[in-house]
Amino acid sequence: MGQMNVVPYIDVMLVLLIIFMITAPMLQQGITVDLPEADAAPLDPELMQQNEVLILSIDAAGSFYLNLGADPETPVDDESVLTTTAAIVRRNPETPVVIKGDEAVDFGRVAYGLALLQRAGATGIGILTEPIQDEGI
After folding, report:
1. What is the DSSP string of the chain?
2. Within a 10 A sphere around the Cβ of 91, how many other Cβ atoms?
3. Could you give the percent of the chain with pLDDT greater than 70?
4. β-strand 54-58 against 126-127: which pairing, if any?
5. CB within 8 A of 12, min separation 6: which ones?
6. Residue 33's pLDDT band (boundaries 50, 70, 90)?
7. Distances from the Cα of 89 to the Cα of 26, 30, 86, 126, angstroms
8. Which residues pair with 97 in a beta bridge?
């Protein structure tokens, strides 16, 4: 009998489906902001899966939000950014840290958020952007 047993392949497919269903909601964290467009390399997916990502979001009004903490939808003050980030980075120095700033926010506010993260001990801080959309020029 020369038939192929496809049951193991179905099992692998179902496991992958479950993994993708669990990880997909984790990719969208924090508050909604209008990200600027830039031609930048994407984050390493392997690093993102190994560690929880700390995202400092800055809305158009300049308020800070942290995706890790008691309530990601509530603005946090400068001291909370420092203490929360320091605790997370101390617990896991490999934690990826990114800034997600609204494109309407003043660059000075983004730079101030970057300085807060650096003072808290975060290194290798990234800036989250949207990919550039081709408009068919």
Report:
1. ------HHHHHHHHHHHHHHHHHHHHHS-S----PPB---PPP-HHHHHHSPPEEEEE-TT--EEESSSS-TTS-B-HHHHHHHHHHHHHH-TT--EEEEE-TTS-HHHHHHHHHHHHHTT--S-EE--BPPPP---
2. 8
3. 74
4. unpaired
5. none
6. low
7. 20, 18, 5, 15
8. 54
Q: What is the pLDDT of residue 86?
A: 92
* Residue owning tokens 């997916």: 45
For CA atoms 119, 68, 43, 102, the dihedral sign is negative
> Residue 128 is encoded by which pair of tokens?
């989250």
For the stretch 83-109, pLDDT in tens is 999 998 999 888 888 898 888 888 889
Phi, then psi, of 20 in degrees rounded to 5: -65, -35
Q: What angle do CA 74, 98, 89 make, to 5 degrees?
A: 85
Among candidate residues 33, 53, 57, 43, the one with its CA nearest the CA of residue 94: 53
